[in-house]
Amino acid sequence: MEEVRDRDQNTQVEGIESGLEADKSQNSIKRTGNLWTASAHIITAVLGSGVLSLAWGMAQLGWIAGATTLVVFSAVTLYTSNLLADCYRTPTGAPCHTYTQVIKNNFGEAMYGMCATVQYAILGGLLVGYTITTSLSIVAIEKSECFRIKGHEAVCRASHIEYMIGMGIVEVLLSQIPNFDKLSFLSLFAAVMSLAYSSIGAGLAFAKFVSGKGGGTSLGGIEIGIGLSPSQKMWRVFRAFGNIAFAYSYSIILIEIQDTLKATPPENVVMKRANAVAVATTTAFYMMCGCFGYAALGNHAPGNMLTGFYEPFWLVNVANACVVAHLVGAYQVCAQPIFKAVEQRSRRRFPKSKFINAEYSIGIGKHKLTINLFRLIWRTMFVALATLVSMIIPFFNDILALLGAVGYWPLTVFFPIELYITTNKIPWHTWRWLGLQTINVTCLLVALAAGCGAVEGLSRGLKGYTPFKFVE
């Protein structure tokens, strides 16, 4: 093995710390991203497991509130994401390579610490959610085959645990991809997969509805009555808000995505176009999956829309296979910012450590594989931990609602709005300031309600649940 020093990367880390780093295209990493790769990254991160819960969310809210909530969240997300895109470069022209660096440059250490804690907690939670969703989709394929062979009345049960472990093993291997800039091929593939299973889900739902076999729906969603008390209805509505918020949460990696773009044309201009393309695309699919799914499955729509369909067997299995393929890529899109943050901090603290900084080149035929021992060990341990948590708390809708509640308001609404107010020096007594703060407070109240609903759902789900025995 040949040891090589990545001096350019160490220089880059020191530049980030001082806030005066030159553009990465002139440093160690040549940025090659464009409108379409950025849009693919966003679609990969956004159009994921959240789309599968929208039919369930519509069933809790009903036609009017459900459709309105989807549109409002998309508009707020697009607006605040564009505000955040303008904060990529500092007034001196230096780029900010991470979301947390933007916060640190504008608000100081205290807000930086709060933002970093929330961001990385949410990203870690997403990995748990993706692992759970992957196992749900693989089990759905297994049960579909069981029903195809034995009939719909057969008792078909399967364990999720081994599939979660398998997902963890695959992600351990993929996690050795050095950085975000090397993920474009994976994101493009994952984006195609996400569009594929969303289209299949919407198509299956539409076909079931037009055939006259759709479930019962109402303007107000599932009705209070036998088996559903007023308080349970309220908690479900709150969780539905959290699920929809989760479906639009991508600001946590927006700056990291923007940091892959070429410097010309300006990154913020391209990023705003990518925001528009991605949000418009995802909203269209969300409306189709949510509305068609609700029309087809009715007020008792399952948490994962695809589990409500069993025929045609082959098409349902293809859709679930696409979910698995998509989430394998989306996992890395969300994990790489965590990997990058820990490794940069470690290099700054231990600049002379060979264990942390040395890169080893291994020849495999005509190709060379670069390995870093610290990266290999720590990333493996992190993926193993995320897999373990998934096996302990495998509650799909409640996890999504909690992630949406905790992450959407501070990272997608609060920080972008406060950054815009600060950088543009908007006086507090103006109509613009009042309008921005109205959006801020309204989203905070919705997030608090969603958080309460998610905690209630998790506490109820944990009663009588035995860890590591997730079978359905």
TrEMBL record:
Transmembrane segments: 35-56, 63-81, 120-141, 183-207, 237-255, 276-297, 317-339, 376-393, 399-421, 433-458
Annotated GO biological process: amino acid transport
Keywords on record: Amino-acid transport, Membrane, Transmembrane, Transmembrane helix, Transport
Keyword hit for Protein biosynthesis: no
Major localization class: membrane
Signal peptide: none
Cellular localization per UniProt: Membrane
Pfam families the UniProt entry points to: Aa_trans
Start and end residues of each Amino acid transporter transmembrane domain: 32-451
GO CC term, one of those recorded: membrane
Protein name: Amino acid transporter transmembrane domain-containing protein
Organism from which the protein derives: Salvia splendens (Scarlet sage)
